[in-house]
Amino acid sequence: MPVLTQQILRTDASGMPLEWIDFRQAARLHFLGMIAYVCGEPLFVLHGGINAVSRRRSIVEISSIIATHGNHRMRDSYTPPLSNRTLFQRDDHLCLYCGNRFGHRALSRDHVTPISQGGQNQWTNVVTACTRCNNHKAGRTPEQAGMELLAIPFSPTHAEYIYLQGRNVMADQMEFLRAHFPRYSPLRERQHDPRPSLS
């Protein structure tokens, strides 16, 4: 049985992933009549108060994926906000120089082309690096430092970004999100909850 901290994936009516919400937000959407349909695994059954007229108790079943009325078209030029947490998730907590997996505290954001050399602080110019490799590379490019970059940095799509923000992503949620990933997405190969519990 999932715990109440389990995140619920909210989509629009067309199935476009929008955000992660908690059970309270999901219950509120149910009571406001904003649910278009539900899919995925049933997670919780919430019992409300007893109606004074009908003498019936309200019951809401919360599923792992809920679609709300309306459609949200994402701009083709959409670029998700960059944060260390989602960057480290994108790179699967691997240092993209030495190839080792580390906990969050031992990782850092490295600018492939350093800002001092005109590089930008954007998804396509940043990678996850362990502190040791980042210190060794310093203000140089990988070529200048004699280091090999193990993967090409990429900017996630909206659906990929929603996945990267998730915690304890369930198998049905992962399958749903994966259907929205580009065919070439490096995230397609991830299992339903690949994130290490390193700290």
Rg from alpha-carbon coordinates = 21 Å
Largest sheet: 4 strands, mixed
From the N-terminal CA to the C-terminal CA, the straight-line distance is 26 Å
Based on secondary structure, the structural category is alpha+beta
Order of secondary-structure elements = EEHEEHEEHHHH
Proportion of residues in helical segments: 10-25%
The residue ranges in which pLDDT falls below 50 over 5 or more consecutive positions are 192-199
In terms of DSSP E residues, the strand content is: 15-25%
Helix count, per DSSP? 6
Task: Tell the overall outline.
Answer: elongated
Strand neighbour order, sheet with most strands: 2-1-4-3
Number of strands: 6
Instruction: Estimate the mean pLDDT confidence.
Output: 89
Description:
- The structure is a single chain.
- The chain is of the alpha+beta class and 199 residues long.
- 22% of the residues lie in helices and 24% in strands.
- It has helices spanning 23-31, 84-90, 131-137, 142-145, 158-165, 171-178; strands at residues 8-12, 17-21, 35-50, 57-68, 107-111, 126-130.
- It has a four-stranded mixed β-sheet, with helices on both faces.
- The radius of gyration is 21 Å and the shape is elongated.
